[in-house]
Structures are given as C-alpha cells and as structure tokens.
Amino acid sequence: MTGMSIRIAPSILSADFCNLERDLQRVSHADLVHVDVMDHHFVPNLTLGEPIVKRICEVSTLPVDVHLMIEDPDRWAPDFAQAGAKSVSFHMGATHAPVRLARQLRTMGCQACFAVRPAEPVEPMFDILDEFDMILIMTVEPGFGGQKFLSNQMGKVRRLRDEITRRGLDTHIQVDGGVNPETARVVADAGADVLVAGSAVFGAENPNAAIDEIRERAGQTYRK
Ligand code: DX5
Ligand code: ZN
C-alpha cells in the first residue's frame, strides 16, 4: 500500500444547520466534508436532501463525501453524484444492485462506497471489493451523532485491511461513529485511513485544532 495517508472528514451532523457555510470555514484543516443524509425510514432521524447537498458542494472548498442512510439508494444515489459529491456511500442493507449502482456512480465521476452497520459482516462483499473506492465501517448504529464508539468493530476493519493488502487494492477504509482523539489511535491501528468525526470536531472549542489532533494521533498508529 503506497501513498495512503490518514484523512479526516468532519461530519456536519454536529454543525449548526443555520450556519453551515460558517461551520464549513471552521473545518478548513479537514480533507473531506462528510454529509449525513437520513430519511426517517432507513434510520429514525431526518436530516437533509439533495438541494442542500448541492449548495454545500457549491460553497465547500473541500471534497464532499455523502453518506446516504436512506431507503432505495439505487434510485436516489446518482442524484447526489449529480449534485457534486466527490464520493457517495450507500448502505449494503438498503441497496438491491450494489455493483450496478457503484458502476453508475463511477461513470458519473463519483467515488463509490458501501457502508455496513455494526451487525453486518463485510466478508460477503469481498468478491465485489474492486467495484468500490471506499468501504465505510460504522462504529455506532447509524442515525445519530454523539454515540459511544463500538470497539468490537475493529476485527472487521482488520480483516478488511488484510484482504485489501493481500490483493494489492487501493480501497480506502472509512470509520464513522464515536471517533475522537482517543479512538482515532484504535481505528488507525486496525487499518482505517478515513476518519469521520462529528461531535469531537464541532463540539470542540477549536474545530481545526481537534482535526489536527485526531490526524496526529491516528498517524502514530496507522497500520498500512
Ligand atoms: C451517524 C452518522 C455519523 C455521525 C457521527 O449515523 O453517520 O456521521 O455524524 O457522529 P459522531 O462523530 O458524533 O459519532
Ligand atoms: Zn456518517
């Protein structure tokens, strides 16, 4: 694995939804901006949709990473690529034709990513790994920010990293949920290279300093 470094993606779920542009400016040290789209059906929470994502893509100087927690991503995910997202993640438990959808996203110039919930295994997807640019391992049950990190997901991250390394792929591993300067060390040690953090970044007095600290701690243990 060459040239892979830790990237930090603040989740705007913990930003001020009435001051999104201001809050985007407060995380200028980040590598990506993580936008959680929830539909009140796939998860018991409702956030925002394509029109707001489109505006975020227009004003953000960082690439926008959209995490869809919605039913029927086969129908809706391409709209987010069209809106300007650099990467789109859909949940394996919600999609019907993940390979077709991944290919459609890639054709649109958007990186394709699938997400798995804590109780879902990643091994069944090993045969289709090369269809994806990134795999998202949830380290909380999806739906809400500020939940406690599930360290029992680290075996999954390790097995996935081993498989990616064994096959010489350059697939990124993203972890999402409960990431802070402490747990950053643990996820990087397991082999994750894209760290989403919501409350740990936007809940901090200085969000950019929190991003720097998470990146620094993760960099100390990152297992390529
Ligand atoms: C949860 C979302 C996360 C959330 C993470 O369903 O997918 O992106 O914002 O928030 P923290 O970092 O506070 O756990
Ligand atoms: Zn997310």
Q: Brief overview, please?
A:
The chain is an alpha/beta fold and 224 residues long. It has 8 helices and 8 strands. The protein has an 8-stranded parallel beta sheet.
The helix/strand order is EHEHEHEHEEHEHEHH
| Estimated structural class | alpha/beta
Basic shape:
globular
CATH fold-level name = TIM Barrel
Instruction: Indicate the CATH architecture.
Output: Alpha-Beta Barrel
Taking Cα atoms only, what radius of gyration do you get, to the nearest Å? 16 Å
Strand content: 15-25%
The total count of strands amounts to 8
Strand order of the largest sheet: 1-8-7-6-5-4-3-2
What helical percentage do the residues reach? 25-40%
CATH class category name: Alpha Beta
Count of all domains = 1
What's the story with the biggest beta sheet?
Answer: 8 strands, parallel
Unreliable stretches (pLDDT < 50, length at least 5) are none
Distance between the termini: 6 Å
Global mean pLDDT: 97
